[in-house]
Amino acid sequence: MNTVRTADEETVGAQKVAVVTGAGSGIGRAVALELLAAGWSVTLAGRRPGTLEETAALAPAGGSALPVRADVSHPEEVAALFSAVRERFGRLDLLFNNAGTFGPGGVPVEELPYEAWRHVVDTNLNGAFLCAQAAYRQMKEQRPQGGRIINNGSISAHTPRPHSVAYTATKHALTGLTKSLSLDGRPYGIAVGQIDIGNAATDMTAGMQTGALQANGETAPEPVMDVADVARTVRHMAELPLEANVQFATVMATAMPYVGRG
C-alpha cells in the first residue's frame, strides 16, 4: 500500500491522486487503468460496487486503487466520496468527470417521459457539477494548491444524433460548465478541460457496428475506435503541468459520420 501523505507533505513529483467517476466499465474503466499503470493513485467511483471491484482487480501489481460506491446525482454521496479521497490520500490532483447515461435510446422527444429526462439531467449535468464543485473546493484548499478537472463531453456536445434530446442537451450544458470552471479556477491553479469522444468501442456503443440511426432516417453501421486510445488521450491531458491546459479535445473514430456529410 502507498504511504499516505497529508496535503502539506505532498511535493512536486510525488505520486498523483485521481478520482474517476463511472469507473466500473467502459471509458471510465479504461482511463482508470491507464492512470494506475502510469503510477497514479486512483479512486474508482460508481454506482455498482461489483464492477468497481472488477476494475480494481485489473490494476497492475502495486497499483493503488480505492473503490468507492457513489451515485453522483446525490449530493450526500458525492460529499462522502471526496471525504474518502481526503482521508485516504490527503489531496486530489485530478477529477475525470466521466459518469453519464444516454437514457432511453431512440425515443422521440414528444414521447420522452419526464422521469427519463430528469434521470439524464441529474446524472450527466447535476452529477458533473456536484463532483466538480467538491473537487474544486479541495483543490483550492489543499497545499500545494491546484489540480485538474477533465469533463467527458461527447461528440453530442457539438452535434446531436436523432432522438437524443436529453443526452445532447446535457452535453451542450457540460461545455458551459467546463468554460465557467476553467475561468473561475485560474486564480487557484485549477485547470479545467473537456474531452469530446466519438464512437469508442464499449458495451454502450456495441450496437453502432451493426447499425445506428442516421440524420436522414436510415440505419447504417458506424466505425468505432479502441477505448484505449481515449484513455491515452485523457492521460496526456492529465499529465500536463498546470501551467498548460487542453481546453477542448475531440477524439473519435476517424471515419465516423461527424465531419461533413459522413
UniProtKB/TrEMBL annotation:
Family from the record: Belongs to the short-chain dehydrogenases/reductases (SDR) family.
Domain of life, source organism: Bacteria
Organism: Streptomyces ambofaciens
PROSITE patterns: ADH_SHORT
Residue ranges of every copy of the Ketoreductase domain listed in the record: 16-198
UniProt keyword list: Oxidoreductase
InterPro entries the record matches: KR_dom (IPR057326), NAD(P)-bd_dom_sf (IPR036291), Sc_DH/Rdtase_CS (IPR020904), SDR_fam (IPR002347)
Signal peptide per UniProt: none
Lineage: Bacteria, Bacillati, Actinomycetota, Actinomycetes, Kitasatosporales
Protein name: 3-oxoacyl-ACP reductase
Key word Signal present: no
